[in-house]
Amino acid sequence: MNFDPESYTITIRKEECYGEILYVGRVAEFPNINTFEETFEEARALILDAIQTLKKIADETQANFPFPYPAPSDEFSGRVTLRLPRSLHAKVSRIASQDDVSVNQFLVTAIASYVGEADGISRVVSAAVALFEQVASNAMTTVVTNVVTTWKAAQFIQNSVTPTIVSQPFNLSGKLILTCPATT
Question: What is the CA radius of gyration of the chain?
Fold first, then answer.
């Protein structure tokens, strides 16, 4: 199946937000995605870009990416008959009662969680955050290395310090290092 960001359940509505009238874009499959733009076109473009970006991150990190919800049809009524062993039915009923929800709501939540409907985006976002942290860490390491190298070179030039060259073999962490003798 080819990836098509427009196959996701996108809604764009004109709403009042903090005293401003804005177009608010949302994606049902990704409850954490919201856009607040001045035009319908900007909201739509930003929503599509967000879906494409999340897909790219999921592909790069080899994370699962939620599929679009199936288009509503007469094929799916939303009603399922489920037969459970008595012991499982009793356990589900007890847990649902403790959570103060119906057995039906408990089962819907459990199934949604299992198939990734409840937190599909959180896995993608977590992978994106981890990737960003890795990139930021690598960038900081490069910057620090460059700063230290530049500082050492500046100190050498400023102080006219001559580096010491060891002409004898020396041991560094169990490894024998041979150096070139100093030339005079």
Answer: 29
Task: Decide if 15 contacts 21 (C-beta within 8 A).
Answer: yes
For residue 65 the two structure tokens come to 């990416």
Residues near 95 by beta carbon (within 8 Å), at least 6 away in sequence: 106
List all residues 6 or more positions away from 169 whose beta carbon is below 8 Å from its beta carbon. 176, 177, 178, 179
Residue with the two structure tokens 């030339």: 183
Burial class (CB in 10 A: 0-12, 13-18, 19+), 72: exposed
HSE-CB for 8 with a 13 A CA cutoff:
26
Q: Note if the pTM is more than 0.70.
A: no
- For residue 180, is pLDDT > 50? no
| Neighbour count for residue 171 (Cβ, 10 Å) | 8
